[in-house]
């Protein structure tokens, strides 16, 4: 049997975010050899977007010896369907309906292409290159503009029968008078524990109290999770309370998730996860207070050590190694 790993020593990882699309050439050791980015909303049609993506990716491929050196392309995207290679009804992307993205790119570059949900891609990256290396059971939670999750059980990513399993960001944590979520329902975890959810909590807390806070010096309508973190670091009581509320809700939801799959670890990823003790301590406290007794103390709470952009690109690229191995 020929050794294709020598003949095709690289894969491509593509991370499609609401703002930027980042892509890179990755070797078998998980080194990102080269990378670049385009604006996700650069073009009106999906065909124009694919043309622009491929036009920017091709020079990177050529620099490594051309298409013949690439085993495959892996893509992480919101609402990505692993089974079909499609993006389906993604609210934060400019193209509506069902987009056959993997097929469009494969047709353009003649390289085998696979696609999955962006949080799943981050989980694969963590399992291949990060703190979840060697783990067969863990849950990845991405805390960014939304709350995403990738669930790994017995070493396998959980996709469900339709490719969309593992949406922990859309479990309902507030049944009565819950906040409207971007998905259209009320009370989802994402509406409270994403970076945007935390900023919304900040506005509510500031409006309902008169306690002094550094946050009152800012334009309240445009407060970000980073602003709240900066204030917490300076000892701001209100900012710490906002993190406490956010972490408590997330910890309660994670206690339920642990009862479902008994993971070895929960790995937090994304900007909000970098808030250190301000978010970690209330999460851990709420897990401990709400966990079923048989699971107490068994699941570690970890923070990803991979850079945000790297983890998504690496995870997507790891899918491409997998894809080729399955052929």
Descriptive notes:
This protein has ten helices and 13 strands. With 327 residues, it is α/β, with parallel strands linked by helices. It has two domains: 4-125 and 309-326, Nucleotidyltransferase, domain 5 (2-Layer Sandwich); 134-304, 2-Layer Sandwich (Nucleotidyltransferase, domain 5). A hairpin with a 4-residue loop joins strand 2 and strand 3 (32-39). The longest helix is centred in the C-terminal third of the chain and has 25 residues, at 237-261.
Q: What is the H level of CATH, i.e. the homologous superfamily of the largest domain?
A: ATPase, nucleotide binding domain
Portion of residues in helices? 25-40%
Residues in β-strands, percent: 15-25%
The number of helical elements comes to 10
Q: Give the overall average pLDDT.
A: 93
Give the total of domains.
Answer: 2
- Morphology call: globular
Distance between the termini: 13 Å
Structural class: alpha/beta
Low-confidence stretches: none
Instruction: Please state how the strands of the largest beta sheet are arranged side by side.
Output: 3-2-1-4-8
Main β-sheet, in a few words? 5 strands, mixed
Please give the number of β-strands.
13
């Amino acid at each position: 049997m020929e050794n294709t790993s020598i003949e095709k020593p690289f894969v491509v990882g593509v991370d499609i975010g609401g703002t930027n699309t980042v892509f890179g050439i990755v070797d078998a050791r998980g080194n990102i050899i080269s990378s670049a980015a385009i604006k996700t909303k650069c073009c009106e049609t999906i065909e124009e977007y694919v043309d622009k993506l491929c036009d920017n990716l091709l020079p990177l491929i050529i620099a490594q010896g051309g298409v013949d050196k690439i085993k495959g392309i892996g893509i992480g995207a919101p609402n990505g369907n692993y089974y079909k290679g499609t993006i389906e009804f993604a609210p934060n992307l400019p193209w509506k309906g069902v987009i056959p993205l993997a097929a469009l790119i494969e047709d353009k570059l003649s390289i085998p292409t696979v696609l999955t949900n962006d949080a799943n891609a981050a989980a694969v990256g963590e399992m291949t290159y990060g703190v979840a290396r060697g783990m067969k059971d863990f849950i990845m939670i991405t805390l960014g503009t939304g709350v995403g999750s990738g669930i790994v059980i017995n070493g396998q990513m959980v996709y469900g029968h339709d490719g969309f399993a593992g949406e922990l960001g859309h479990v309902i944590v507030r049944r009565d008078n819950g906040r409207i979520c971007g998905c259209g329902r009320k009370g989802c975890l994402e509406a409270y524990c994403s970076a945007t959810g935390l900023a919304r909590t900040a506005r509510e807390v500031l409006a309902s109290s008169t306690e002094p806070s550094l946050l009152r010096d800012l334009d309240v309508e445009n407060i970000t999770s980073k602003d709240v973190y900066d204030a917490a670091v300076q000892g701001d009581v209100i900012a710490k309370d906002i993190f406490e509320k956010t972490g408590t809700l997330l910890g309660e939801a994670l206690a339920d998730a642990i009862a479902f799959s008994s993971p070895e670890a929960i790995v937090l990823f994304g900007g909000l996860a970098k808030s250190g003790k301000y978010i970690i301590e209330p999460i851990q406290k709420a897990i401990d207070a709400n966990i079923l007794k048989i699971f107490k103390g068994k699941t570690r709470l970890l923070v990803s050590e991979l850079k945000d952009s790297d983890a998504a690109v690496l995870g997507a690229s790891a899918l491409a190694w997998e894809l080729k191995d399955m052929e």
